[in-house]
Amino acid sequence: MKKNNLPKKAKGYVQKDKLNKVNEPAPVYRSIKALPAVKDFTYNEFKKIADKAPFTQVEWAAILHVSERTLQRYAKDNSTFAPINAERALQIAKVLKEGEFTFGKIENFYTWIKRGPYMLEGNLSFDSLTSYEGIQKVLTQLGRIQHGILA
Predict the structure, then answer these.
(1) Are 64 and 89 in contact (CB under 8 A)?
(2) The model's pTM
(3) Has residue 87 been placed in a domain?
(4) Which residues, other chains included, contact 62 with Cβ-Cβ below 8 Å and sequence gap of 6+?
């Protein structure tokens, strides 16, 4: 007798267990508020940064885009900075830290930036510290110097 090698009739899939319903996580929306470090940035916190830097009050005013008189008023009242000015001060603190790491002393970094060093995208200057893009270029160049890429 020959065996029937024909395939058996396929049965449909039968679900034995009920599937658990998976809940998708709720999205988290964050408001566009100032960061805590920037929100309550007082003159005393700025003074800690300014004491480490060899910048004059005129130079700080130019970097922060405020007048010298405004800085004096902040000093007198220990006022809080506007978030954009506080953020710029914190960016400069980062630049000063990198400059000190690169050159050994902040004064050496200050001398370097005042000379108008050359980089691939053009010359840097002290005015580079007055814009976000300029600060990024300075940080890029400091990183290149740290890694031995001087151009």
Answers:
(1) yes
(2) 0.70
(3) yes
(4) 127, 130
- Tens digits of residue pLDDT in 25-56: 666 655 555 455 667 888 999 999 999 999 99
Instruction: Take residue 84 and report the two structure tokens written for it.
Output: 């954009």
Domain assignment of residue 108, given as a range: 36-146
CA gap 134, 149 in Å, rounded:
19
- pLDDT value of position 119: 76
The half-sphere exposure of 129 on its side-chain side, counting CA atoms within 13 A, is 25
- In DSSP terms, 43 is beta-bridged to none
Distance CA 119, CA 121 (A): 6
Question: Average pLDDT, stretch 122-140?
Answer: 88
In a domain, 54, yes or no: yes
Could you give the number of structural domains in the chain? 1
CA gap 2, 101 in Å, rounded: 88
Q: What's the N-to-C CA distance of the chain in angstroms?
A: 89
